[in-house]
Design goal:
The chain is an alpha/beta fold. The protein folds into 2 domains: 144 residues, Aspartate Aminotransferase, domain 1 (Alpha-Beta Complex); 245 residues, Type I PLP-dependent aspartate aminotransferase-like (Major domain) (Aspartate Aminotransferase, domain 2, 3-Layer(aba) Sandwich), CATH 3.40.640. The protein contains 13 helices and 14 strands. Helix 2 packs parallel to helix 8 and helix 5 runs parallel beside helix 6. The longest helix has 39 residues. It is globular. The two termini are 35 Å apart.
Amino acid sequence: MSPAEPASHPPVTYLDHAATTPMRPEAVEAMLPMLTERYANPSGAHRMARDANRAIDEARDELAGLLGCAPGDVVFTSGGTESDNLAVFGARRAGVGPTYETVVCAATEHHAVLDPVLALAGRTVGVHPSGRLDLDELVAVLDAEAAAFAAGEGPGVRLVSVMLVNNEVGTVQPLAEIAAIVRQHASDAVLHTDAVQGFCALDLAAVADPADLVTISAHKFGGPKGLGVLVARPSVVLAPRQVGGSQERARRPGTPDVAGIVATVVAARLTADERSGEVERLGRLRERLVSGLLAAVDDLTETGIGGGDARAERVDRVPGIAHLGIGGVESEALLFLLEREGVFASAASSCSSGAMEASHVLTAMGVDDDRAKGALRLSLGWASTDADVDRALAVIPPAVEQLRRFAL
């Protein structure tokens, strides 16, 4: 259980780890000396600057080992959004050999990928109701672009981006299969994966190995906000989105956040060391949470899970995310009641002109309007406990009942 708020508020039950996690105490401890003692600019030449630069080098080496890449492949950024933008815009503009300009992504991508792709007039590929990419449609899109290029009627495909783990529903994409399709049908294209939601549950050194570009973000696994990484394999020539310095091999110039980098690596190390045990523990918590809500609340479904054995189908989901659709309620009202009881979650919806709208992810998955309006994402992380699940099971059913009663 998170630290209690003042006496006038109920205890905090935090179920929004997919949005951000609390920093690990060890990461905070590692960060403080870099702010108060070893604070020099690492780009300088004096001893204190060299000390700060050495801290970055050591962090880069360790993180490279955790991500399965060379130290020189690690590009530190300000977060997942910048890393995704750098991947889409940077790889597209690098243009080695023929100028392949078309960018392609899944329709369920985070806006940090989706919006740049749309801004570049790129193409999106649909998904199945489970959230998994439609591989046949991917082949069709890539073949159509290749044919247009061969006929001199199109620029060809420069980049394909598919999120490893969806941030709303937790679906894990078959990245190895996707990579094989890209290599066969768009052999000169770069493959990028936004793995921001994947690091806690998956060994990226193995799972993300087929990707040329990989994005992670520190605050999703107990590190600080404002620190991200883009892994750029040697095969990718990455054009910077900003200029004015030689930092990060000029791929991302600017004074590095030494404290954030050091804290990120500590959080990453702890996450990797504890991963197998945490996957099992969080899987049990999610199973109890979802099963309890399914038993207690009528007209509630787990998003993307069909009518068969739900537990078997959850193999393709990370254990930390449970996404539900609740009939007869609206997310905004439900979240208000939950917050009043100290339960903090999200709807995974965007707000447009003051009205709650279904997210593009749910729309792409074909979720009906009623379920989309009652979307609820409950996400678990390293600080989650059995008490959090107990509290959620105690608070959510009566909140739903209250809203339905008033709706009559």
